[in-house]
Specification:
- By secondary structure, the protein is α/β, with parallel strands linked by helices.
- The chain is about 50% helix and about 15% strand.
- The protein has an eight-stranded mixed β-sheet with strand order 3-2-1-4-5-6-7-8, with helices on both faces.
- Helix 1 packs across helix 2, helix 2 packs antiparallel against helix 3 and helix 8 crosses helix 11.
- The longest helix has 20 residues.
- It is globular.
- The chain starts with a strand and ends in a 16-residue tail after the last helix.
- Keywords: Oxidoreductase.
- It holds the Pfam family 3HCDH_N.
- Pathway: Lipid metabolism; butanoate metabolism.
- It comes from Jeotgalibacillus marinus.
- This is 3-hydroxyacyl-CoA dehydrogenase.
Length: about 280
């Protein structure tokens, strides 16, 4: 495994590209146009420089990571020579399936195709390709450069070999992998969505302020971040899509909080928009 392609240069895509590059992989980061990719490059360059300045990266590793990173608008050019492709686009199944169909035609037959999804089915995605045994989900966590976990989700047809290769990639990236048999929401998203949704319901009901709900969870249950702050970081639009999918597949207990729906309609989608449950400058 030498070359990895990341499709999508949003928050997660940028983080995965950074983590792959500092781990020694040649990386191609792909997105829709040059403007988007230039913004992604600026963010990654800044993170690399800060990591070097703070001593997290040695000079040699810093230089190698910069050399490893490539930015490519054309999907075929970005993915044709890669041994692993990680898709990191919106949590919309039709968008993901469309990308996987294209990748299936572009990539070599032994290339592993992975989706960085927090809820969607690698079985459903893999069934739309000619290589369901080589389709898997790798669920990274935000911020990727700090979070140690990767959920490795095996679809119905995913081979043992594919799982082991992806686990080896996770180890090289200095991540801990947990193997999960596919079920909607996997492990962490099911728990996160329930906790976050209940926190939103409590805020809507006037039980406590956002600050005090989060403080209670951090100081009382030792969570590193409160559930409302975490939802803002993830993006309330992303959280709503996850909740809608879990509600559709797992039932009533995942019904999205009305306050979440209202915030998304208002454009208050969290840290990336400047406001969510908190205000950001």
């Amino acid at each position: 495994m030498k070359t990895v392609t990341i499709v999508g240069s949003g928050v997660m895509g940028k983080g995965i590209a950074y983590a792959c590059a500092i781990s020694g992989y040649k990386v191609f980061l792909n997105d829709l146009n040059e403007e988007i990719l230039q913004k992604a490059k600026s963010s990654i360059d800044q993170l690399l420089y800060e990591s070097f300045e703070k001593g997290f990266l040695k000079e040699e590793a810093y230089a190698l990571a910069e050399e490893n990173l490539n930015y490519e608008v054309d999907l075929a050019s970005a993915a044709k020579d890669s041994q692993l492709v990680i898709e990191a686009v919106l949590e919309k199944i039709d968008v993901k399936i469309d990308i996987f169909k294209k990748l299936d035609k572009i990539c070599e037959p032994d290339t592993i195709l992975s989706t960085n999804t927090s809820t969607m089915s690698p079985t459903e995605i893999g069934a739309q390709t000619s290589r369901p045994d080589k389709v898997i989900a790798m669920h990274f966590f935000n911020p990727v450069h700090k979070m140690k976990l990767i959920e490795v989700i095996r679809g119905l047809e995913t081979s043992d070999e594919t799982v082991e290769i992806v686990k080896a990639v996770a180890t090289k990236m200095k991540k801990q992998a947990v193997e999960v048999n596919e079920f909607p929401g996997f492990v962490t998203s099911r728990m996160n969505c329930l906790i976050g949704n209940e926190a939103m319901n409590m805020l809507m009901e006037g039980v406590a302020s956002a600050e005090d709900i989060d403080k209670a969870m951090m100081l009382g249950l030792n969570h590193p971040m409160g559930p409302l702050e975490l939802a803002d970081l993830v993006g309330l639009d992303t959280r709503l899509r996850n909740m809608e999918y879990l509600y559709e597949t797992l039932g009533e207990k995942y019904r999205p909080c009305p306050l979440l729906i209202k915030y998304v309609k208002a454009g208050r989608v969290g840290k990336k928009s400047g406001s969510g449950f908190y205000e950001y400058t």
